[in-house]
Amino acid sequence: MMRRLRRGLGVAALGALAASPAGATTLVRAGLDAMTASSGTIVHGEVLGARSYWNADHTFILTDVRIAPREVLKGSAGSELTLTLLGGSVGDRTVMVVGGAELRPGQAYVVFVGEDDLPGRVGVQTVPGHAQGVFEVQKGADGGWRAVSQANDHSMVPDALGRTEVPGGREGLALPALLDTIRQAVAREAVTPGGTR
Predict the structure, then answer these.
(1) Which residues contact 18 (CB under 8 A, 6 or more apart)?
(2) 52 — phi, psi (to 5°)?
(3) I need a labelling partner for 132 at 20 to 30 A (CA). Which of 60, 157, 173, 174 fits?
(4) What is the mean pLDDT of the chain?
(5) Which residue(s) pair with 137 in the sheet?
């Protein structure tokens, strides 16, 4: 029994060594108005493909994700938008970021995009809100399309009003309702630049 336990612990330790370190991310709960205001671009689109690679210093793995927008809700994106995310896999090395956005090829999302600096890359288009800035589009129980926040499985620091639940909660929001809410927030922003609620 002890030999089996030691072998199991050894395998677990080997697995931990094979994976690169995970980075923790603190997510402060943000509402749709705040996320809209802090994003330069917001798109509803489908992921075409992804490519992971080492940064120039070979200190961190990044992933470029190509998205074909179905609708550009804010900003401009052309026929294809490339985002750079923290983490990914190259060969037998994987870097995972706890709370990081995950975008899979063939899947549709609503994504809040901004410009930021990442390890070894300056001024790239990314998802500054990490998992909170990504809503996965999926079929609901009623057969309609819903948008569910990827931040549902992560602990949230309360916002100024003490709220911790992400917009839509576990059930998500009806996709048309989410898109309309974002459009309205963008329209309010155009009338009162810089105003957030």
Answers:
(1) 92
(2) -100, 150
(3) 60
(4) 86
(5) 147
Rounded to whole angstroms, the Cα distance separating 46 from 51 reads 15
Taking only the tens place, the pLDDT of each residue in 166-180 is: 999 999 999 999 999
Burial class (CB in 10 A: 0-12, 13-18, 19+), 48: middle
C-alpha to C-alpha distances, 40 to 28, 74, 95, 167, nearest whole angstrom = 19, 7, 27, 20
Beta bridge partners of 20: none
Q: CA–CA distance from 75 to each of 13, 37, 103, 113, 127 (Å)? A: 46, 11, 20, 9, 14
pTM to 2 decimals?
Answer: 0.83
In order of their start, the domains of the chain are 21-191 (2.40.50.120)
Whether residue 90 has pLDDT greater than 90: yes
Maximum CA pair distance of the chain?
70
